[in-house]
Specification:
The complex is a heterodimer of chains A (395) and B (209). Chain A is of the alpha+beta class and 395 residues long. Chain A has 2 domains: 171 residues, no CATH class; 182 residues, no CATH class. Helix content of chain A is 54%, strand content 17%. In chain A, strands 3-4-8-5-7-6 form a 6-stranded mixed beta barrel, surrounded by 4 helices. Chain A is elongated. Chain B has 209 residues and is α/β, with parallel strands linked by helices. Chain B has one domain: Rossmann fold (3-Layer(aba) Sandwich), CATH 3.40.50.300. Helix content of chain B is 32%, strand content 16%. Chain B is built from 6 helices and 8 strands. In chain B, helix 4 crosses helix 5. The radius of gyration of chain B is 17 Å and the shape is globular. Chain B starts with 18 loop residues before the first strand and ends with a strand. Classes of the chains: A alpha+beta (395), B alpha/beta (209). Chains A and B meet through helix 1 and helix 10 of A and helix 1 and helix 2 of B.
């Protein structure tokens, strides 16, 4: 059974060219829809990605957490250091380092208001991050009350970053739950990691300074970071550690830990729902506009299509025709949308200090969304196409 | 589905190459007759034999196959505005078993020549006069070398001169191809091209001569 595919392609191109600029409004609408989907996907990626900065940067093959651990977004519940020693003893584990994290406030030196920040700490002789500026400053971190500030921190931290860049040490008071008088830390340098979207800034301490300032006993760990021996099998070491610790701790591989954080933000917070909704709205708008383009082309040609049908062209031909028109419009709108999106990404990225990258994942996702727009529009248009009846051509 | 007897006792046969004009007031069943013979409309009772095949009770796919051997011309030319004239003519060929890009182009050019529009292939339909457009539509119907042409009021939208030329073209090319032509019309000026005229009134056939 012939469906004259080559002819359908040619006709699709010709009809689009024929309608030309009259389609401009509709075409712009489709671009808006695609850019909207890009924006949502970009925000999702940037927001969730920002929250993953720290977990991704931690140098570990396996993570140990307390049994109630849910996310790094809040101060993780502590677990006993003895568990880390137990894990260290498991065959295949090369090293086991403690990691501390707490969310608290520093006092703004200008106006005395509180600035929320994440405070992380580890043993300076056994660093858990591999950041060049931090590695250089490690010896200084061993001095009492010293700290490093994330150079990409936002808002109220920016004046502090600027004076640090000028080589001036900054003294900041901390809100410490246990101290009678607010302890003072000396911020002596910067490191670059990038803030997440919930908290504007973060500081690094040595474990001893962390204890000094927050008075959290050092045998209460936030995370335990394990490296495994070269050649050891990751999954079987994980299982062995999990078996050794029982239900007093949870054990994750690095990939599992990062995925867990991502899932937390996408499924446990409104972010996933809000951005998912935005994405759906974008796709919906796209469907409406593609449909409008198809309808106007079908309306212009309905009796011509009926003649083709009289000559023996089948449903499949007309579906192939509108499908190709939809794809041509979609791909045509996709390219300028990509340009607009990269502009928007760089503007919003500068404004938020979040990372907006036009990654292959995002482009692929949005392209898929565009294909969905086109296909759904074609489904509706196919119903309209059924109405081209050769019998209507007779006077 | 409701059924209604539109045609009553209509019976005639047409031989190869014959040109038949069907006349009758609106509502007489003329269009129904034409669409049934053109394999466009399924029917319940009676029989229509097209080259020995009975169209009655035929599936949609079977009717589609029959339609490959029929050319249609309508009151409006219904040419695809986005395609140049030559490609409109070629649109009649893509579904034929012998379709071939180069051969299609040659056949379409020859057919445009035959309807007096040689060299106009690259023009778009909107740049042609009404009579020329209708001749392109005739070329599109004839290019597939059908066994039968079904034309519904082909000259209704044309002035006398253009209408006459269109009918001449239909008559000449059809007779060269040995193609049967069925024309429904009110246009008395074209009665003379027919071998026979059938008149229908209230679904009943009256042979005029």
């Amino acid at each position: 059974m012939r469906i004259a595919t080559a002819f359908s392609t040619r006709l699709a191109i010709r009809q689009l060219r024929h309608i030309g600029l009259r389609l401009f409004g509709t075409f712009s609408g489709i671009c808006v829809a695609i850019v909207l989907v890009f924006a949502q996907a970009g925000f999702m990626n940037a927001l969730v990605g920002s929250a993953l900065n720290l977990p991704r940067a931690l140098q570990a093959d396996l993570f140990i957490t307390g049994p109630q651990f849910e996310t790094m977004a809040y101060s993780p519940p502590w677990f006993a250091r003895t568990l880390l020693d137990k894990a260290h003893a498991v065959p295949g584990v090369a090293d086991a380092r403690p990691f501390y994290a707490i969310i608290s406030q520093a006092r703004n030196p200008d106006d005395g208001t509180a600035m929320s920040a994440r405070f992380i700490a580890f043993e300076p002789n056994r660093p858990v991050l591999d950041l060049p500026e931090m590695t250089q400053a490690l010896p200084l971190l061993k001095l009492p009350d010293t700290a490093l500030l994330d150079s990409r921190s936002r808002r109220k931290f920016i004046p502090i970053i600027e004076s640090l860049e000028n080589g001036e040490e900054q003294r900041l008071y901390l809100q410490s739950p246990a101290a009678t008088l607010a302890p003072e830390m000396r911020v002596i340098g910067l490191y670059g990691l990038g803030p997440d979207f919930t908290i504007d800034g973060s500081f690094i301490f040595s474990d001893l300074n962390y204890y000094r300032l927050f008075q959290v006993p050092l045998d209460r760990l936030s995370l335990g970071l394990l490296t495994i021996e070269p050649g050891a099998d990751l999954k079987s070491v994980r299982d062995a550690v999990a078996a050794a610790l029982g239900d007093r701790a949870k054990v994750f591989t690095h990939a599992e830990f990062v995925a867990g954080e991502r899932d937390y933000f996408i499924f446990q917070t409104p972010i996933g729902i809000i951005l998912g909704f935005g994405l759906a709205v974008g796709v919906f708008i796209g469907i409406v506009f593609v449909m409008q383009a198809l309808y106007s082309i079908i309306d212009m040609n309905i009796s011509e299509y009926a003649v083709l049908r009289a000559m023996g062209y089948r449903d499949l031909f007309f579906i192939a025709l509108v499908l190709q028109i939809a794809l041509l419009i979609g791909v045509g709108a996709f390219i300028p949308s990509l340009g607009i999106t990269s502009l928007i990404y760089s503007l919003v990225g500068d404004a938020t200090k979040l990372r907006f990258t036009l990654s292959l994942d995002i482009v692929g996702l949005v392209f898929l969304a565009m294909i969905i727009m086109g296909s759904v529009a074609v489904l509706f248009a196919a119903r309209k196409l059924r109405r081209n009846n050769p019998l209507d051509l007779f006077g | 589905m409701l059924t209604r007897a539109v045609l009553k006792g209509v019976s005639f046969s047409v031989s190869e190459g014959e040109v038949i004009i069907i006349t009758g007031p609106s509502g007489s069943g003329k269009t129904t007759l034409l669409t049934i013979i053109g394999a466009l409309r399924p029917f319940r009772e009676g029989s229509v034999r097209f080259q020995g095949q009975d169209l009655g009770g035929m599936s949609e796919a079977g009717l589609l196959d029959i339609r490959q051997r029929i050319g249609f011309v309508f009151q409006r030319h219904n040419l695809l505005k986005s395609l140049p004239v030559i490609e409109n003519v070629e649109s009649g060929l893509h579904l034929l078993p012998e379709t071939d890009t180069e051969m299609n182009r040659m056949r379409a050019e020859a057919m445009l020549e035959a309807v007096g529009l040689g060299g106009r292939g690259a023009d778009y339909p909107e740049n042609l006069s009404g009579g020329q457009q209708q001749r392109v539509a005739v070329a599109r119907a004839l290019v597939r070398m059908p066994d039968m042409i079904v034309a519904d009021e082909p000259t209704a939208a044309l002035d006398a001169e253009s209408g006459r030329r269109v009918m001449e073209v239909v008559r000449n090319v059809a007779s060269q191809l040995g193609c049967t032509v069925l024309i429904s019309t009110h246009d008395e000026r074209i009665f003379h091209v027919a071998d026979r005229r059938l008149h229908i009134e209230d679904g009943v056939l009256q042979v005029v001569h």
